[in-house]
Amino acid sequence: MRYVPLAISALILASPANAKTIFYGARVGMKVTIVKKSGIGTSHAVVLTKHTRQNAIEFCRDYVGKVTEDCIVSEMNTPLHLEITADCKSGKFINFYGANMLFQGRSPEGSPTEYKITATDENVVLDGSGASGYGYTIDEFKLLCPNRVK
What we know:
Shape: globular
Largest sheet: 8 strands, antiparallel
Structural class: alpha+beta
Order of helices and strands: HEEEHHEEEEEH
Strand order of the largest sheet: 1-2-3-4-5-6-7-8
């Protein structure tokens, strides 16, 4: 019984405010909260997230500049795949938008990015620009397969 207060304290301290987040887009505040990770670094790496009201409030405050219920609802309705997965051995992974991606290791000398990532559905190499989504896409792969990105 003496451990019950300790367990309750630990649950209180592990509040969503302390939860880890990851960006799903290039704009300030485009984040989701990490709920569970499994198989990290393996051929079955999975990160499960949720798009919380707090995530939406931060987006509205930091990007839109005004927190309104309409903004929060709109952001909460962003169509996302809340589970990202990877086969770290092959480099194949699926991002928050459900796109099939391929991590191909270090980019050749003189490339605009450190690592080469191809959006395989469109056969397009991400060029490092904000529009290509390279920044948050490489972060997704790093989370799933940290040993492949050094």
